[in-house]
Amino acid sequence: MTDALSRADFEARLRRIGAERYHDLHPFHHRLHGGDCSPDEVRAWVINRYYYQHSIPMKDAAFMSRVEDPDLRRAWRSRIEDHDGTETNEGGIRRWLRLAEAVGLDRDYVASCEGVLPATRFAVDAYVRFVRDKSLLEAVAASLTELFAPKIHASRIEGLLQNYAFADDAALSYFRNRLKEAPKDVAFGLAWVLDHADTAEKQDHAARALIFKTDVLWSQLDALWGAYVDPARIPPGAWRPGEGLAPGAEAA
């Protein structure tokens, strides 16, 4: 039997997964943050990423439905509120739709999830099923991509502000808020995983869950690259440039 890693060594193992596999390494993000995306490539990213954003509260609700510990449910509940909003917080989903309007898309079209790439839908739905069906430890471990999110949000804010006319504080409010929200979520989630992954087998399960989540994020960008950086490969039913624009918005 292999002994479990120490708490510090296991955390280092999880962080190495992000260093090697997080989607900030994907060429689409380098293209986006560097100002090299066309307006339609940005719109395609906003449309497809919305499907992920709108699915996160459903993922978290599926997780909470399986949790018997009220303390864990109470701690996890804020994640749903951060996305869906409350009376005092408009929530991440509405902020993302503001970004959609800023890039010239009709918010109702984006919210309908019409035109989402098949690969995006498959990847995000697979993540929701993973959290619904796997162990609580694996479900929480999969959320730990938030460990690596502040870096990409900061890079995105800087790159979009420098390179795109649509970018302003209102359009980028989603990312600015996640800089405040994500550290709270990940501090709790990381501590919970480190506490509960107390055998080598459990640590392996948790690490594989985090790898699965990085694959979910990476595959969404692969789909965008294949469909819109090389436009001849847009699959049937997916968004096409010129569709779903806000009134008065110009096609690229």
From TrEMBL:
Its EC number is 1.3.3.11. It catalyses: 6-(2-amino-2-carboxyethyl)-7,8-dioxo-1,2,3,4,7,8-hexahydroquinoline-2,4-dicarboxylate + 3 O2 = pyrroloquinoline quinone + 2 H2O2 + 2 H2O + H(+). It comes from the Bacteria. One of its GO terms (molecular function) is pyrroloquinoline-quinone synthase activity. Keywords: Oxidoreductase, PQQ biosynthesis. Pathway: Cofactor biosynthesis; pyrroloquinoline quinone biosynthesis. One of its GO terms (biological process) is pyrroloquinoline quinone biosynthetic process. The keyword Oxidoreductase applies. Residues 12-222 form the Thiaminase-2/PQQC domain. InterPro entries: Haem_Oase-like_multi-hlx, PqqC, PqqC-like, Thiaminase-2/PQQC. Belongs to the PqqC family. Ring cyclization and eight-electron oxidation of 3a-(2-amino-2-carboxyethyl)-4,5-dioxo-4,5,6,7,8,9-hexahydroquinoline-7,9-dicarboxylic-acid to PQQ. This is Pyrroloquinoline-quinone synthase. It comes from Alloyangia pacifica. The lineage of its organism: Bacteria, Pseudomonadati, Pseudomonadota, Alphaproteobacteria, Rhodobacterales. The gene is pqqC.
